[in-house]
Amino acid sequence: MQTSNPYHYVAGCISGKWKMTLLHHIHHYGKIRFNETKKTLHVSEKVLSQQLKELVNDGLVERIQYNTIPLKVEYILTPLGEDLIPALDILYVWSIRRMSELGLDIDPDALKVHTEKKYEEQLVNIINEYTERRS
Questions:
Q1: How many whole angstroms separate alpha carbon 85 and alpha carbon 102?
Q2: Residue 52 CB: number of other CB atoms within 10 A?
Q3: What's the whole-model pTM score?
Q4: Angstrom distance (rounded) from CA 127 to CA 135
Q5: How does DSSP classify residue 93?
Q6: For residue 134, what pLDDT is reported?
Q7: 77: exposed, middle or buried (C-beta count within 10 Å: 0-12, 13-18, 19+)?
Q8: 3-state class of 76 per DSSP?
Q9: What interhelical angle do 19-29 and 34-41 show, nearest 10?
Q10: What is the mean pLDDT of the chain?
């Protein structure tokens, strides 16, 4: 039996430019649709399709297809995907803090989407400073 490194395994599940963002979007909105997400995130159709397929294959996201005309497809988090959200929250907060320390520009959309109290309470000073700098 071949063994796997747990860090490599989780990195494989969430690596990719859009996977963590997709997981957060699905968590935040409850579900996403392909074309709406493509427009919102400004991601190519090919990349979005591939990243969603990988998330489905890894059991983090479920693809629900409705037999309607036109065809309707939605993506929701599985229980495994929901279990991953607290870890992604920790990575998000850590990343914002570190980027602030380094003086790196933070994508304003990242601060707009993560509006729940759990983020605001931990990042209030950074968000306020960033908002003032951008004004």
A1: 25
A2: 21
A3: 0.85
A4: 12
A5: H
A6: 64
A7: buried
A8: strand
A9: 120
A10: 88
Per-residue pLDDT of 97-117, as tens digits, reads: 898 889 888 887 777 666 667
Residues of the chain with pLDDT under 70: 112-116, 130-131, 133-135
For the record, the structure tokens of 74 come out as: 């939605």
* pLDDT recorded at residue 78: 98
d(CA 42, CA 44): 7
* Identity of the amino acid at 130: Y
Token duo for residue 134 = 């951008």
Contact 23, 81 (CB under 8 A): yes
Q: Which amino acid is at 77?
A: L
What span, in angstroms and rounded, lies between the C-alpha atoms of 14 and 12? 6
Query: Which of the 8 DSSP states describes residue 62?
Result: E
Alpha helices in 62-116 (DSSP H): 79-102, 108-113
Residue 125: its pLDDT value, please?
A: 77
